[in-house]
Amino acid sequence: MAKVYIVNKGAHDHSDAERFGTLEYLSEGSINRYSTNSMFREFYPKLLESGPEDYILPTGLTIMSNIACAIFACLHRRLNLLIYKASRTGGPGRYVQRSMIFRLEGKEGEKDDS
Predict the structure, then answer these.
(1) Per-residue confidence (pLDDT) for residue 43, from 0 to 100
(2) Residue whose C-alpha is closest to residue 36's, from 13, 70, 10
(3) Are strands 3-6 and 78-85 parallel, antiparallel or unpaired?
């Protein structure tokens, strides 16, 4: 079964995202927005357990989601996102899936070693 990596465990209820896979939290609570190396060191070992079918659910600080997405994309050459879309009518929101597959060419003269 796929996993949903939630960037930060906060007060929001993400239980509806369980439809897409088992929920895994990359971090919990307050994190210093300038401690980017600490974020990487916390997220990387957890995301090593991820597979190309898993998702990132962006939450918390934007920089945290940026780092989590960069790690996932480097590991799998793709990025699967679950993005929460609030309802315009006041009802429950929903999750929107977005996936990108990366087949990037380097700049002229650069070699992709993968």
Answers:
(1) 98
(2) 70
(3) unpaired
Q: SS3 for 23?
A: strand
Measure the CA–CA gap between 51 and 2, rounded to whole angstroms.
8
Contacts (Cβ under 8 Å, ≥6 apart) of 41 = none
Helix axes 36-47, 62-76, angle to 10 degrees: 40
- DSSP per position, 75-104: HHSEEEEEEEE--SSSS--EEEEEEEE--P
Please write the tens of the pLDDT for every residue from 3-52: 999 999 988 889 999 999 999 999 999 999 999 999 999 999 999 999 99
Q: Report the share of the chain in percent with pLDDT over 90.
A: 75
Cα–Cα distance, 4 to 18 (Å, whole number): 8
